[in-house]
Amino acid sequence: MPVASPSPPRLQSPFIHRPINATPSSSRLLSARNLRSSSASYPRIKSELDTNTVIAISVGVASVALGIGIPVFYETQIDNAAKRENTQPCFPCNGTGAQKCRLCVGSGNVTVELGGGEKEVSSCINCDGAGSLTCTTCQGSGVQPRYLDRREFKDDD
Q1: How far apart are CA 103 and CA 125, in angstroms?
Q2: Residue 72 — φ and ψ, nearest 5°?
Q3: E-strand spans in the chain?
Q4: Could you tell me which residue, 146 or 8, shows the higher pLDDT?
Q5: Cα-to-chain-centroid distance, residue 46
């Protein structure tokens, strides 16, 4: 009595339209022409995408694009700005490079009323009697620094 060979197991999946045979592909001898013309040789995959999934994928792609695009945009803007000459006069000092002292209001002297009608005039301790100070925005150059150039901190010690 001949023994029948067992049939190969069939794989089942909710995403696959028809089951796949678990037999090795070498047992099927299909020519290239048969592979192209036969739609039955490949399983069709069902893809059911709801709107939330489509939105999530779209947001992910947009986030990656913006995450790469924005830094590249700023880098090119910084490079272009570095190539251009900066000729804008400094706003606080009007391009002079010096600002009027706030303590003596530019006179170089400070008047102090002592009492009893007496007044004492002394040299300003803020500007050493000069009446002006080096502009802290342009560092005395008279040219308005670009935004990122203002972030340079100098130690005055």
Answers
A1: 9
A2: -65, -40
A3: 10-11, 20-21, 98-100, 109-115, 118-123, 132-134
A4: 146
A5: 39
Place of tokens 């000092």: 93
Q: What is the DSSP letter of 143?
A: B
Q: What tokens does 135 get?
A: 């502009």
| Structure tokens belonging to residue 88 | 């804008």
Residue 117: strand, helix, or coil: coil
pLDDT of residue 63: 93
Distance CA 94, CA 121 (A): 30
User: From CA 30, how far away is CA 149, in angstroms rounded?
Assistant: 70
Angstrom distance (rounded) from CA 89 to CA 133: 17
pTM of the full structure: 0.41
